[in-house]
Fold each of these.
Amino acid sequence: MLVRLVLGLLITVVCLAIAARRAVWLRKVIMSGQPTVDRTESRTVVAEAEAVEVLGQKKLLQWVIPGTAHVFAFWGFLVLGLTIIEAFGALFNSEFAIPIIGHWPVVGFAEDLFGVLVLIGIVMFAIIRLVNQPSKEGRYSRFFGSHLGAAWLVLFMIFNVVWTLFLYRGAQYAVWQNGGPEEFPFTNGGAFVSEWVGRMLEPLGLQANEWLATIGILLQLGVVLVFLIIVLHSKHLHIGLAPINVANSRRPNALGPLLPMYSGTTAIDFEDPADDAIFGRGRIEDFTWKGNLDFASCTECGRCQSQCPAWNTDKPLSPKLMIMDLRDHLWAKAPYILAGGDEISDAARAALPASAVAELDRPLVGSREGDPHRDTDGYTADGHRSNEGAVIDEEALWSCTTCGACVEQCPVDIEHIDHFVDMRRHQVMIETNFPSELNGLFKNVEQKGNPWGMNASMRNSWIEEMDFEVRVFGMNDEEVIPDEIEYLFWVGCAGAFEDRAKRTTKAVAELLHTAGVEFMVLGEGETCTGDPARRAGNEFLFQMQAMQNVEVLNEIKARNIVVTCPHCMNTIGREYPQLGGNYEVVHHSQLLGKLVADGRLKPVKPVDDTVTYHDPCYLGRHNKVYVPPREIVKAVAGQKFVEMERSGSTSFCCGAGGARMWMEEKLGTRINQNRSDEALSTGAKKIAVACPFCNVMLNDGVTSRKQEGKASEDVEVLDLASLLLEATRTQ
Ligand code: SF4
Ligand code: SF4
């Protein structure tokens, strides 16, 4: 017993000292970030998130097999926490049992059951890793670029936790069976695996089993404590950080609205910014502590990477690698930051480790030529990345479509888009370093109020093609929207100027007219919502556009607004409240769906063709509108509706979001082509969309396949409003 106590305490003290030192260092580094606004609405919301995402493992279970393996491991570790308490207790008292529950057979059963489930879980993890090896699948493995060796080491350590557990408990059982002290807490039964091991050890006799129990307990504690140190020095930090990150993440998630730019916890006033205002993120020190926590929490699982449209079309952007690069840079630069950052003394600077000095001159965003991850063929099997050049490849940063697939998938609630847009903000507003095509976008929005650079007088051109009167605000000297108007129809720039989107605008107007819905448009009073400028990082231009629109909408007392563009919906409905504009905004699929359900629109002429539907990212993932568009398509197509494999929350972007619509796609293959090919592969003759940008992108993708002779001439991409209109027309 004395040997057990002395060695046990020695291992514990040494390991806990190392672990505590690391934990304190991690806390200091993470909290060195900028302050962040409190995003948690209430303790109830946080408790619900913890219950659903952490205890319920909801996001992990989106992928059934790896999710199940993780449930086994996660719950196994919670339950096996009891066995660690028992092992520590046995250092001091060989007959230790946890008070009250310590002898309950059900507890012994649960401990052994979860020990087995953990073993099953690690076998599943091992198989998943062997099947999805980067050396076999290249960049399309979700583990491409992850620390593979560390992952195997952790699986090995978990295995060690379980076998040492059963060793010491089996030996305890055998001690008892040999007439020794009652060290085994579950002599009333329940611990079925421990008993089974114990029966095999029983013939060794009392003394040998007493020694085996001691060795097993010391091994168990040693493995657990070394594992703790490994966790604190690896990507497995997420074991402790994930619940904290979930508690501090935006709710319901970091999709939909972007956050305003903050100086401390106050939104930056662009007319009179504070002297110390930080414009976006230009250095790792500019990120908030929540950003640092995000970086530290990444499990390197690669779920985000596997869904990313940019990564899947051979661009250098992987959301996982971006987060890992930011984390690695933060860790490497930490000695400098903790020594005072810009205020560092000469003596402290001279004492910095070489690894920190090497990071000081690296720009946060810039060229990363030579990075093997940048080049599909340059992959190195050990996942090594060069730390030459900038931390974040500018080509990767500008490849993001802000589609939200990464945020949707991330099991630890990392807020990728917020970080990427924040870096874009610095590049645009401070460095003036952005793709040259965006100059045209910014100029057109600023000078003409729309990305196409069209004259405002053209906004009403579609109205001239209608054979009924469309009410335009102000034509009859209205000062506010009249009471009888049910909806202000926000046409949007695409809906007013882009030919394919204009077809949607006219279809929606005709359907509303047919259903007897009183609506009005703003006409020349509309200007760009600012969405593309905001997602391109030009927050200043967004603020100008948004304030102008909010002023107009508030002045005319707009309340209910219908839009055809999910980007307008997201911006007006969910971002304008940041500037005092609060409106009920619905997408036309929601309103038209309701009109069909109410019998005010009757699809009397079902389409004969097979129809598929493409979920726009800003309607689906960002705003969770999945059902109404499908109800319309099903009302029109019935049994001829066919889903694409990537649909709903796992839909694949068309490539236009995040202001990508206005940038050249020079790297890799085309995102819109990838999505169009998937739509074509369903055999559908009609590809329904619900966003003007998706309409353009998929139309272009299908047209190019037609030109190559790879798609039938009668395949058509059209908005679901046009589809519904066709079905409601009797002649
Ligand atoms: S938002 Fe979409 S494009 Fe951007 S990193 Fe995430 S998955 Fe990739
Ligand atoms: S960012 Fe999230 S989804 Fe991506 S690898 Fe890290 S933990 Fe996994």
Note: The chain has 28 helices and twelve strands.
Amino acid sequence: MKEIEKLDKIAITVRSHKLLKELLHENPRLEEIMRNAKNETEALVGVQNWIMGYLKAKPDAYRYFVNKQTGRETFEKLDWQDYAAIRILDYIDNAGREFPDLNLRGEIAVSNPIKLIWLGVNFGTGGAKPYFFKDMLQLFRQFSGKATREIPSREKVLEWMERYPSGLDPRIIKLREENRDRILTIIIEKINRGEIKDDHYFFEDEKTKEEKLETARKWWKERLFHLRFAVRSPKLLNELLGNSLDPDTMKILYDAEKAGIPFFVNPYYLSLLHVRVPYFAIGADLAIRHYIVYSQQLVNEFGHIVAWEKEDLVEPGKPNAAGWLLPSHNNVHRRYPEVAILIPDTMGRACGGLCSSCQRMFDFQRGNLNFDLQKLKPRESWSEKLEKLMNYFEEDSQLRDILITGGDAFMSSDQSIKKILNAILEMAKRKQEKNKKRKEGEKHAELVRVRFGTRLPVYLPQRITPELTEILADFKTRASEIGVKQFLVQTHFESPMEVTPEAREGVRLLISAGWTVTNQLVFTAPASRRGHSAKLRQVLNDIGILNYYTFTVKGYMENNFMFATNARAVQEQLEEKILGKIAEKDYETIRQFPMEAELMMENINALRKYNNIPFLATDRNVLNLPGVGKSLTFRVIGITRYGRRILEFDHDATRVHSPIIHKMGKVVIIESKSISEYLNQLEEMGEIISDYEGIYGYSIGETEERIPVFEYPEYDFDVTPELSNLVID
Ligand code: SF4
């Protein structure tokens, strides 16, 4: 007997029985089909005929189901029952399909929910867990019309947003000063006792306690201080947090240390965590806290993590998962034709901290990455390598956009950044010269966009100095002269509480250099609480940042704790982000924003005020697919016995992809947590579950359209359709 067949024999629990009984009681037609079916096939056919009868009477929804008419417009016309009908029929169409479940280290998962109900009804077996039955109960309530969709009012969303103060709230600023002094006092004591020795930061002569604190407050303004005094152990972490972490958490952290997960929390970022929690900010720092405090699941899985981003695995001479040939092992990543990521061999390979849900945890596990900052300084050979990498960009027919990242691009020294920017500028000039000799229609794409990927405005805003600003401004002037048009710093704020006076000043400097600052939020469980992302969008707009992407957490079981389900990502998009929806008539206005980037804050404010909206919803909620590209176009096509949903994603039809997507087809993702588990977790965070009513119903997604502010400028010549550096078998 196959392992899977054995599972069918497993008796369901009392709780599962009760939920099943409720399901049948509420749905007499379902009960009749289940009791009369002599085998699973009859059960499937019976349910299929029933649901198809409904859907055929709804022509638009039917065409959507059979993939004859999809897209955002049709999606927005689907009603709540249509969602349920499509899901049930998708379950039936995919019944019995087997999928390797990478959350369970490759164990095979089978989806056959109707069979599980039939087994439960007739034999009390099937092994389906209560979370599975809870999902089914909600599904049939949605189909029968018992559960309807209530879109929260604008007032309600604003009320949810108000629960989260920002780091610019004067009361929070005061608390952070308290935190800073607490951390500094402990560091000073350690220096006094000789436990910490540093050749740059020390006290020369006998100073009073107050004088030492005053000196240390000056150190606090320097980037170097925070890198040198970053916490690298759970013991010190707890000490600097006033020993406020509970023993259970500490056990996990000690286990994490034993498992080899690095710790790197700089004092500034640590000061954003509350030790003394004020009544008005209870739970407000959770999105930050869970970026620092590792979960039990991460510790359990460390050592077994598999790469999510398959296209980042590069073998020299062989195309990556997206079909691109790359010039080196570790320095260039590429998914799309127009853009490639440049990862320099500099300190930029490191970050100002380690986000617990980072996709690069896989690389830390392999030992490829670390926080050994000395070793990460550029080697002699880097200059030659940089030339080789630039040649790749120069010779490629489609590349027009270069994203310098890492790690974190701003971890590189000013000197390194200058060198990279100069190399890019020279490359762009050479590319243009070569183009002059090419005929119309055969010309290569020229460089139009330069980007930095950095979280330092959040982790270490002290890094954004007038000197760095000068380098960026100078580059913009020189690159604009040769026709480069877009200059972006992509950062990564997770919480309104990360928007501090220091971060605001760092962002102001970047904007003053004429660069557009955009944000990519990772939609972690704490960041997914009602109103949290909406508030973050608002606070970021306040300081002149445009929101760019809201990413579902990637990865498998290692990120189980941080994962917020895709159903919640769709719900957030349709129920909260909708408040900042930009009318099409404003597209042209917003497209002009980066042209006068220095006025970004004023322009954002004017548009918000004119439309009376709290924020500009310029970001798209998406998942970075493990194959190629970003998308939130999916349907729930299956569910495991544990109630974890199986989603089938399509690629984002609104952007240019590697042609490999035609070969790859759709991408199946098994979520690492059921909706019920997610809701339980929210309850643990103090949320009221009824506020999330309707989440089970969001089983379909369609990627939002890109707001024109993020589109590439047009060329005044025709680019060759030829794709170089591409190999598709
Ligand atoms: S800043 Fe980005 S790359 Fe660095 S640890 Fe965080 S998520 Fe990972």
Note: DSSP finds 30 helices and 15 strands in the chain.
